[in-house]
Amino acid sequence: MTALPTTGRSWHLVARPHGWPKREDFALREAPVAEPGAGRILVRNLHFSVDPYMRGRMNDVKSYVPPFKLDQPMDGGAVGEVIASADERFAVGDHVLHGLGWREYADVDAKHATKVDAALAPLSAYLGVLGMPGLTAYAGLFEVASFKEGDAVFVSGAAGAVGSQVGQMAKLRGASRVIGSAGSDEKVKHLVEDLGFDAAFNYKNGPVADQLREAAPDGIDVYFDNVGGDHLEAAIGSLNVHGRATICGMIAQYNNTESTPGPRNMALIIGKRLRLQGVLVSDHAALQPQFVEDVSAWIRSGELKYSETFVEGIENGYDAFVGLLRGENTGKMVVSLTR
């Protein structure tokens, strides 16, 4: 039997960020690793996720998920290998998905771990295309936005883990036109040439409203919002009568220190009879079986593509998170601990 490690490192939040998170707001600390107690498993994390929603958890405000505690290990999605088990449902060597990321070794309540199969998909995919971001895209498009064949769809943050899946899923289900926005010409090229978007634009190259009108001269029926701000205002202007918007994220304002003004054209919601609805993936767990069935089939057939941006080493966890907020990733941003 292989000896268990005696210590492991984990990222702690040590100060609430004001504006953009700074390196001194975080600390990478070492702590003892022990045998798991009854009903628990010890997992060596192989990959952990950094996601935009984590920025909100760094603020001490009441929200749909509790804020990170100061001077405690942060958490988030992770996949890893069981190295010790005190629960009959898991054996040493099993691969599991769980919620105690941001650390090398996780002492996990077995009730909160799910076995995953590395033979079906790379383990990192369970943090992205087959995980929370993928289900967010699936539920947000098909259930919240009530997508139907023939709809024209606009996705902001379209090169990210969620947006890239939304656009492709819409095409696979018969969208008349799919438009994406991204923050670089390289990402725009990726959306059109690799992912099959009908049009895309770099929001840094001019007013979003003007670029959207040019890309969608007949308007849009669905907007999937990952950005907020000027993108939401532009979408309200371009949505057709009875258009629907899924509000998934507002990364453009997560680091603002002042209140962000709302769209200036919200009166259009009345005349156009628009529906704007927020999405939280936790509300849509019932869709999980159908989601896995559909998406895994699309991946196997090559119809749905996904990208991952890997940052190697737990010591680079902060850099990966801030890089995500700055849009340095294409697809899912993952911190890999495999080396």
Descriptive account of the structure:
α2 (132-144) packs across α3 and α2 crosses α8. The protein has nine helices and 15 strands. Strands 3, 4, 5, 6, 7, 14 and 15 form a seven-stranded mixed sheet that branches. Strands 10-9-8-11-12-13 form a six-stranded parallel sheet, with helices on both faces. The protein is an alpha/beta fold and 339 residues long. α7 links the parallel β12 (239-247) and β13.
The count of strands amounts to: 15
Q: How many individual helices?
A: 9
What would you call the structural class?
Answer: alpha/beta
| Overall helicity | 10-25%
Average residue-wise pLDDT: 95
Question: Shape from CA axes?
Answer: globular
- What does the oligomeric state look like here? single chain
Major beta-sheet overview: 7 strands, mixed
| CA-CA gap between termini | 22 Å
What's the structural blueprint in terms of helices and strands?
Blueprint: E1 7-13, E2 26-32, E3 40-49, H1 53-57, E4 78-85, E5 95-98, E6 105-109, E7 114-115, H2 132-144, E8 152-155, H3 163-172, E9 177-182, H4 185-194, E10 199-202, H5 208-215, E11 220-225, H6 229-238, E12 239-247, H7 268-271, E13 275-278, H8 288-301, E14 308-312, H9 317-325, E15 332-336
Parallel strand pairs: 8-9, 8-11, 9-10, 11-12, 12-13, 14-15
Antiparallel strand pairs: 1-2, 3-4, 3-6, 3-15, 4-5, 5-7
Helix pairs in contact: 2-3, 2-8, 5-6
